[in-house]
Design goal:
There is one protein chain. The chain has 276 residues and is an all-alpha fold. Helices cover 69% and strands 0% of the residues. Helix 4 (96-118) packs across helix 10 (249-275) and helix 8 (198-211) runs parallel beside helix 10. The structure holds zinc ion. Zinc ion (ZN) binds at residues 38, 40-41, 43, 63, 65-66, 68. The site of zinc ion has 8 residues, from loops.
Length: 276
């Protein structure tokens, strides 16, 4: 419990860094230089300004120097990243899996906020991420002690005629997940280019690689469902008009988190019912 709280604190610090990434990466600026400054008075922020959440609350969301309002997003990203880290710790426990999941979740969360604010999924993030995720498929097969999760359904589908080691199955699952999620989004983009951005197609490939098959299908169709429901709510409530473009990456990232954290348990329960 104490370790989980400590990991959440690490999450808050990472969230503070994600704020810099979100502000600078889409504009093509370096995330390391220069140090963070107040956008209103240009005063360089000192270490005590950079303590996540606490400094924001202590200053009531205003710059120490000029009193300009600090965007609420800054503290929201810090707090939500802390929560995300706590959930990941609870799910994975310490180890290589936790570090991998933490890395990818942080990256996906930054993409969520960037798309929400700027309506883009920047190539400079998503393309290298796809390359790393592809390169990591064999690496993950070697490094991680494989566990059966939703991959188990893939083995059921393949049947005993295609015997695979747990590692082989995990790797096949990831490659197929990436290809199929990419294919589904590419098809939608080709048929209705206005409904879907090219960035969403690339993000879908990344998400598919990370979740693997069949979990990727749950993430993809879950995101359509979630996007549809939110879209209808926004239309009915008058927040969005018929022509308003609604960013799609947030839905895909949220359902990916859901798949990462909860689908394995669901599938194991289902398989247990099937054979139990
Ligand atoms: Zn200021």
């Amino acid at each position: 419990m104490i370790l989980m709280l400590l990991y959440a604190l690490v999450g808050a610090a990472v969230g503070s860094f994600l704020n810099v990434v979100i502000d600078r990466v889409p504009a093509g600026q370096s995330v390391l230089h220069p140090a963070s400054r107040c956008p209103a008075c240009n005063r360089q922020l000192t270490p005590r300004d950079l303590i996540p959440v606490i400094s924001y609350l202590a200053l009531r969301g205003r710059c120490r120097n000029c009193g300009a309002a600090i965007p609420l997003r800054v503290v929201l990203v810090e707090a939500l990243t802390a929560l995300l880290f706590a959930l990941l710790w609870r799910h994975y426990g310490p180890g290589a899996r936790l570090l991998l999941a933490t890395f990818w979740s942080s990256l996906l969360f930054a993409l969520l906020v960037i798309d929400l604010e700027q309506r883009i999924v920047p190539n400079v993030v998503v393309l290298p991420a796809i390359a790393v995720a592809l390169a990591a498929v064999p690496l993950q097969g070697l490094l991680l002690e494989p566990i059966y999760g939703h991959y188990g359904l893939l083995q059921l589908l393949l049947g005993p005629a295609v015997p695979l080691t747990p590692r082989g199955l995990a790797m096949l699952s990831q490659v197929l997940g990436g290809a199929i999620a990419f294919g589904i989004f590419l098809l939608i983009w080709l048929v209705a280019p206005k409904a879907m951005g090219a960035g969403d197609v690339k993000l879908a490939a990344l998400v598919g690689l990370l979740t693997g098959l069949p979990g990727a299908l749950a993430a993809v169709f879950g995101s359509f469902l979630l996007g549809g429901v939110v879209g209808v709510v926004l239309l009915v409530s008058g927040v969005a008009g018929r022509k308003t473009a609604i960013p799609f990456a947030p839905f895909l990232v949220i359902t990916t988190f859901w798949v990462m954290l909860y689908v394995d348990a669901l599938v194991l329960w289902y398989i247990g019912r099937l054979f139990g």
